[in-house]
Amino acid sequence: MRLAEAWRVAMAALVANRMRSSLTMLGMVIGVGAVVILVALGTGTKNMVEAQVEGLGSNLLIVVPGQVNLNAAPAVSRMDNQDLDAMIKVVGDRERITATLTSGETVRAGNASTFTTVNGVMESTPKVFLRGLRTGTYLSRTDVDTGRRVAVLGSLVAQKLFGERDAVGQQVTIAGVRFRVIGVFAPLGQSLGVDRDNEVHIPITTAQRLFGTGRVDAFAVKAPDRETIDRLGEQLLSELRRRHPDTEFSAVTQEQILGVLGNILGILTTVLAAIAGISLLVGGVGVSNIMLVSVRERTREIGLRKAVGARPRDIGIQFLLEAVLLTTVGGIGGTILGVIAALLTAALSPVPAAITWWSMVLAFGVSAAVGIIFGVVPAQRAGRLDPVVALRTD
Amino acid sequence: MIEAVDVARSYELDGVSVPALRGVSLTIEDGDYVAIIGPSGSGKSTLMHLLGALDRPTSGKLLINGQDIATLGAPDMARLRNETIGFVFQAFHLLPRTSALDNVALPLVYRGLGARERRKRAMSTLERVGLGHRVNHRPNQLSGGEQQRVAIARALVTEPKVLLADEPTGNLDSATGQAVLDLLEKLNTESHVALVMVTHDRDIATRARRQIAMRDGEIVP
């Protein structure tokens, strides 16, 4: 029997049992749809997180004391201003490095107050982290060198303290000390769960005086290009280790952060897809079941076809194609449904969706495979039917 | 054409071997017209299944068109049936929801013929059995006699050497049955296709050139 003819026969059989075929397909539609939507949402989330990390600025290198471990609390820093000078020397360009000293503080203006992250930083910070101002100016080198009490507010802090009024030129109190607002950041949104609009930048020298410490928590360095980033990290670390022989330091790049986060989100996506895969499996069992019913119901037809010259193979292929047709048509329906559902979710909720061509190809391939795997047993059973017995069946 | 020598067939039922046919020898010549007659349970259907290569004997030698059935696998037997044998069943066994034309063309599907050639041959065969005007009707739109004529056309479309008819008039009233018998006999004389008819009706059997009477799985002399 020609394959085209077998397709035609399989199609006719499915159309003849419209209700049953559609319900069986529905199982596949749900299974494939679930895989497509969950993979789309998982991938979308991964893309979003990656974009956020990349949004911190490119070719970034963060140097911190201790080991970088997602489970461990950050180590207390032993780095100070001498280390900062040494680091600037290694980098060779004060514009490419910034240091931070961070503390959570309540900031007040008049009767308004808000709890926020106060970052003591250097004047180079906007260049390292690619941050823009909405109004006013940023800290200058003189501000840092002389330890002036000036502050740049995150847009959320400015909004909480001053509402719609312009904050530039106003006074705020941080830890009981007065500061003059010289600028307000442009809104940035969240990055890795941190609201980057809820922070205040002051000169690091001022921060050290304010918090009574000579400490520097971390350095951030912007490498000239991707190629030099690892070597620069090594140079910075060896200088720090030379200066503090008994202390461990780490230099992390965005790529490393992305790698770790990407792994976690990748696993998450896989787990989601696997759970959805179970429903695909259930759909496959449904196909197998209905094919067995179909073989039994059409025993006489099988006997007749064999009597007029169908080989076991011809019968087997006919039933296998029926199963594959059920699952692939269901698979296409499920893909369309999954894509629509993913787009709707992305449009109506903050969860992003990324529809990837590979997930659709995979869904189609898996549905065809499900049809073959779950169609083989019924098809073999049909092919092996004894024509004499089959013809005698009522 | 068909030669059976001491052919026996038994079935396993719950581990017990039940003989259905106990050593039958016969020959069907080209253009023959043979009636196999006997009460139910006499083994005549079993014999017909063997003659039609639907089944294999448990022992004995069975040659169909010169081929020893014992040496053939399932695909070869299917091919032998397709090329040499035409079956006509008591219950017609037409595919429902399928036009008369497609029912008749069905054996040609398994011969690998293209759709156009199948339609052409099925059309001319339907005309031979007098149903040229009913080609697009489905079985449930046809009378019993018409359905059996479609089934005869299906058996005939491959130009077989032998027609095996199992109680072909069993589901028809006597007048329609007569017409179907007349058609089969006409094909036998005109096309020289051998006709083997299984029946329990003595009147029908006497119309054949030879009668083979069976009882308890054996030919009664």
Q: How many individual β-strands of chain A?
A: 14
Segments of chain B where pLDDT lies below 50 for 5+ residues?
A: none
CA radius of gyration of chain A: 33 Å
Strands side by side in the biggest sheet of chain B = 6-7-8-3-9-10
Q: CATH topology of chain B, anyone?
A: Rossmann fold
- How would you sum up the global shape of chain B? globular
Largest sheet of chain B: 6 strands, mixed
Q: On the 0-100 scale, what is the average pLDDT of chain B?
A: 93
Which H/E pattern describes the elements of chain B?
Answer: EEEHEEHEHHHEHEHEE
- The chain-level structural class of chain A is alpha+beta
Neighbour order of strands in the largest sheet of chain A: 3-4-11-6-8-7
The CATH architecture of chain B can be named as 3-Layer(aba) Sandwich
Radius of gyration of chain B: 17 Å
Protein described:
The complex is a heterodimer of chains A (394) and B (221). Chain A contains 13 helices and 14 strands. Chain A is an alpha+beta fold. Chain A folds into two domains: 3-52 and 259-392, no CATH class; 95-220, no CATH class. In chain A, the strands form three sheets. In chain A, strands 3-4-11-6-8-7 form a six-stranded mixed barrel. In chain A, strands 2-12 form a two-stranded antiparallel ribbon. In chain A, strands 9-10 form a two-stranded antiparallel ribbon. In chain A, helix 9 runs parallel beside helix 12 (357-384). The two termini of chain A are 26 Å apart. Chain B is an alpha/beta fold and 221 residues long. Chain B is built from seven helices and ten strands. In chain B, the strands form two sheets. A six-stranded mixed sheet of chain B has the order 6-7-8-3-9-10, with helices on both faces. In chain B, helix 3 (100-109) runs parallel beside helix 5 (144-156). Chain B is globular. Classes of the chains: A alpha+beta (394), B alpha/beta (221). The interface between A and B is medium-sized, with 23 and 26 residues.
